[in-house]
Amino acid sequence: MEGSNIIFSDKPVSISYDGTWYGLLSAVFDAYARKWDVTGFFVTGRENQSDFFTEKVVVTADETKAERVWQGLKKKVPKENCIQLYRCYLSEIPGIELSIFSCIKFYFSGFDSPHLAYGNPDVLKINQTSKMVYREKHRMEAFVRFQRTADDLYYSGIEPDFNVIPLLIKHFEDRYADQTWLIYDIRRKYGIYYDQEKVEEITLNFSTDAGSQTSVKDVFHDSETLYQELWQNYFKNVNIPSRRNIKLHLQHVPKRYWKHLIEKK
Amino acid sequence: MSERLHEKLQILADAAKYDVSCSSSGSKRTNHNKGLGDATGSGICHTYTEDGRCVSLLKILLTNHCIFDCAYCVTRKSNDIKRAAFTVQEVVDLTMNFYRRNYIEGLFLSSGIFKNADYTMERLVSVAKKLRTENKFNGYIHLKTIPGASDELMHEAGLYADRLSVNIEIPTESGLKLLAPDKNINDMIDPMNYLKKEIIKTTEESKIFKSAPLFAPAGQSTQMIIGASGESDKDIMHTANKFYKGFNLKRVYYSGYVPISNDNRLPGLGSAVPVLRENRLYQTDWLMRFYGFQVQELLNDQFPNLDPEIDPKLSWALRNMNFFPVDINTADLQLILRVPGIGVQSAKKIVGARRFNRLGWDHLKKIGIAVNRAKYFITCNSPVTDRKDYTEAKIRQFILNESRSKFLSNGGQQYNLFG
């Protein structure tokens, strides 16, 4: 099971991994087993300048190792706290891997119910970051706006702050079981497609001239405009002008989401 | 065709918007038949209106024709407004198409009373039935129960809807007599009682038979209009308490009266909507439901109205300084919940975290409590800095100086209403 570049290092170690969740968990496995003094994680190919005082180690993703870490975690803390770590990974916040690693180390350190140690900075950091990602996931569950195309696909483009698409699959699969749909992260250039059987991850190649020949009318289903207008009409009429509170409105529906919201167009 | 539909939607959404319930949570309905929708788990607010209220359901009236003449209601018989009515199929189509586009969590259908209670209720039920059976719709359905409708119809409604509600609207019987002369309090209470019994019965059954049909799995709720009949906060919250305790209601909603006429029995056009008072009532409601407060502790003959300047929890604390200081590192959860500036989540975190190390101000700040309030009421592992023997009035003044209420800063005229 020894990887090619596993070393025992007495220097601080900076870990290069493939950027995947399994890769990160494999790195945690190696670092824990070898008792490395980890100072940082980098996605292979995206390293910062090398540093003379740290050893750079490349770790390869290994499903068995990753699975062992995951199963081990589940014995130490409730499932929700395991998922919190995954959510933090999806935040893509620079440096978050080190917090994930430190937190996992603490969870394995032998305390009873270590996930309740909100006085521990790593535990707190994981809790808070996870909450931010969860909020973004919840926002997407709310703000996805499907548009029905002429060939009966319900399409929605999104631009979430964090990489929450993997967290959306179950929700939309359970809910829209009898329609074909596609949710696409425009910024990260991938999406999830459901064909009424299963959900698949896909990437699209938008050809640049496709838009010029086909008009919007051809792309969308006959009823699409009607329902968009009815929705805008409804949105306008449920408002109570004498209770107007724009500050609260903006707090709940921040401007950066408006361009994909039919009712705010 | 679509123009008429637009007009109906405009009229019937506008008339339904004074019902503030937007909840779409608490149901157990799964997408079991590979149909459309799933109503398990917590609800989702799909958007918010410019007044900051959540939009989670398509909230409409089936019709605004009404034989009743309740003074506080836009739809009242004597009001000269445009009337409209959806067909059953129109409501079904709107719900399905909005839901498929992820605009909504489901349907909240209410209605003016046309012909009689049963006739109206039957129509509401037929919409829900059609959605559930013909369209395999598993999203959330909230039906208004019409006062005086028969038990058979109520039963059928419970089979198709996730939540049922009847709005009491006016918290006192005398107010109801004055403002809604056609309404009879028992016509509203009876259906609540019937539903309560049915819900308990089906819950018992489902413990024995896994396949027992769902019956209004998200329970029942009601609404009271605030500031229309000169009632006190005590009147409102003691009535709410009866509903929670006596009828197992999931929620009671409080809706600040929006003036709609110059009827001299009511606040006239141009009077401010009592949003601050509404907010204080919701805070009280939360304290009763999640913080272990008894309604008598918060509102009683000596204190029949809430303090507009400070929230009800702080208000209670200042009246009961003998409870404090609470030691964060040893006190029971129930006591920590009573500290101003500490919410339910933070209280639980404190109880979890203090097993690892004794907590000081820094920990408490990071956990997320409002130290600027809590500091007068707690001791922790850090040296005492702020808890000298301040008087109640002094603490109140300190806290008020530090935090100007968001309502007071822009609504001075509102404050005057409470004197």
> Span from first to last CA of chain A?
56 Å
| Class inferred from helices and paired strands of chain A | alpha/beta
Shape by Cα distribution of chain A: elongated
Q: What sequence of helices (H) and strands (E) makes up the elements of chain B?
A: HEEEEEHEHEHEHHEHEHHHEHHHHEHHH
Tally of individual domains of chain A? 3
**CATH topology annotation of the largest domain in chain B:** TIM Barrel
What can you see in these coordinates?
The complex is a heterodimer of chains A (265) and B (419). In chain A, α1 packs across α2 and α4 packs across α5 (121-143). Chain A has helices spanning 21-33, 63-76, 79-90, 96-107, 121-143, 165-175, 210-213, 216-219, 224-237, 246-252, and strands at 13-17, 38-43, 55-58, 147-148, 153-158, 180-185, 190-194, 199-202. Chain A has a five-stranded mixed beta sheet with strand order 4-5-6-7-8, covered by helices on one side. A three-stranded parallel beta sheet of chain A has the order 2-1-3, covered by helices on one side. Chain A has three domains: 13-136, no CATH class; 144-222, no CATH class; 223-265, no CATH class. With 265 residues, chain A is α/β, with parallel strands linked by helices. Chain A contains ten helices and eight strands. Chain A is elongated. Chain B has helices at residues 2-14, 88-100, 117-134, 151-160, 173-179, 185-208, 233-247, 275-290, 295-298, 312-319, 333-336, 344-353, 361-367, 371-374, 392-402, 406-410, 412-416, and strands spanning 28-29, 39-40, 47-48, 54-55, 57-61, 106-110, 140-144, 163-165, 220-226, 251-256, 326-327, 378-379. In chain B, α2 crosses α3 (117-134). Chain B folds into two domains: 2-273, Alpha-Beta Barrel (TIM Barrel), CATH 3.20.20; 312-416, no CATH class. In chain B, α3 links the parallel β6 (106-110) and β7. With 419 residues, chain B is an alpha/beta fold. Mean pLDDT of chain B is 90; it is low at 409-419. Chain B contains 17 helices and twelve strands. The chains are: A alpha/beta (265), B alpha/beta (419). At the A-B interface, α5, β4, α9 and α10 of A face α1, β3, β4, α2 and α12 of B.
